Amino acid sequence: MSSIKVNQISKRFGNQQAVDRVSFEVEPGEIFGLLGPNGAGKTTSIRIILDIFKPDSGEVEILGGKMTDEKKNQIGYLPEERGLYQDITLEVCLNYLARLKGLKPAEAAARVEQMMKRFDLYDHRKKKVKELSKGMQQKAQLIITLVHDPQLVIIDEPFSALDPVNTQMVKDLLREERDKGKTIVMCTHQMHQVEELCDRLVLINHGKVMLYGKLSDIRRQYSGQEVIVHPLNELPAQIPGVSRIDRDNSGYILHLADQTTPQAILKNLVEQGIPLERFEVALPTLDEIFIQVVTSRGEVS
Ligand SMILES: Nc1ncnc2c1ncn2[C@@H]1O[C@H](COP(=O)(O)OP(=O)(O)OP(=O)(O)O)[C@@H](O)[C@H]1O
Fold first, then answer.
1. Mutate to test the pocket of ligand 1, among 6, 10, 13 (most ligand atoms within 8 A of CB)
2. Are residues 278 and 239 part of one domain?
3. What pLDDT, in 10s, does the model give residues 275-294?
4. What CATH number is given to the structural domain containing 142?
5. CA-CA distance, 209 to 82, in Å (whole number)?
6. Whether residue 187 sits in one domain with residue 249
7. What is the mean pLDDT of the chain?
């Protein structure tokens, strides 16, 4: 059973087609990236998934069927626009919000204490929320998202305002949740975090699905335009089929001209008798793929 099954959903606001026949599935036990440039339709898609908006057409199944009140309690959502009560202490605020999520008072208190310790906020529990730093407030929001031990977590920019130590702590936590079989959908513009964390992803642009699948397959699909070469000696200044040669730390990156394959370049270098220590097809970064996809149009079915 998929955790989320989105089938051909569309949503229009006036003249704006915010979401256009989007389909994807998210499985239990995976961290799934929901990506796209500003205004692509990610938040609208999430709101449809969470039954905040009705789609104009298409269907969503969540945790095996239609959304219910009971299912809402199995979901943790960290939205883009966040709100915590500012004039009460962190401890009171977290306990209050934990109880709103259905935890009994003693259960809420124990869980909040445990999570404040995990998030390194325990020493700040008597501070008013408005006296907390941006990163601390972000961690408090993450506590609220996870406090009721949800089966499905949907988080928008989980690392915003976090320093590298806290970013690492949150990444470890997300991996732990994934390994326990939880489903995590992550919206972020930080592609290196997606590369590190996500098993699969969907990339939306102008409301349409542009890429969908396993990260490793997507990177392989976009490879082939660059090769990394470490020769024993210098490379010739010109190589047929190579449009540009850049120096890398200990070798070269060859940018291939259109219609040229890495195999053709390798054959040419070998025929020229150039001894090589390393020859490798470079996998593009997700950043490079993202820019390529959103600056040229194309759509997967
Ligand atoms: N309530 C609304 N009323 C009118 N238009 C809306 C509404 N919500 C979203 N839109 C429009 O729909 C499009 C998609 O917006 P959406 O918020 O889903 O994008 P996003 O991918 O989440 O962007 P970002 O990365 O900037 O948060 C945008 O053009 C936006 O202006």
1. 13
2. yes
3. 999 999 888 889 989 998 99
4. 3.40.50.300
5. 27
6. no
7. 92
Alpha carbon of 185 to ligand 1 centroid (Å): 18
Query: Which range marks the domain in which residue 244 is found?
Result: 224-282
- CA 44 / ligand 1 centre spacing (Å): 6
pLDDT digits (tens, 9 = 90+) for 12-29: 999 999 999 999 999 999
* Ligand 1 binding pocket includes 221 (Cβ within 6 Å): no
Ligand 1 atom showing the smallest separation from residue 41 Cα: 18
Q: How far is the CA of 11 from the centre of ligand 1 (A)?
A: 10
Q: Which of 11-25, 109-123, 266-280 is predicted with the least confidence, judged by mean pLDDT? A: 266-280
Query: Does one domain contain both 130 and 109?
Result: yes
Asked if 170 and 250 sit in the same domain, the reply is no
Q: What CATH number does the domain containing 230 carry?
A: 3.30.70
CA of 79 to the centre of ligand 1 (A): 13
Distance CA 180, CA 158 (A): 19
Name the residue at shortest CA distance from atom 8 of ligand 1: 44
> In the numeric block, which tokens belong to residue 252?
């070269």
In total, how many domains does the chain have?
A: 2
Q: Is 42 in the pocket of ligand 1 (CB under 6 A)?
A: yes
Is 293 a member of any domain?
no
Q: Are residues 246 and 191 in the same domain?
A: no
Q: What is the Cα–Cα distance from 32 to 184, expressed in whole angstroms?
A: 6
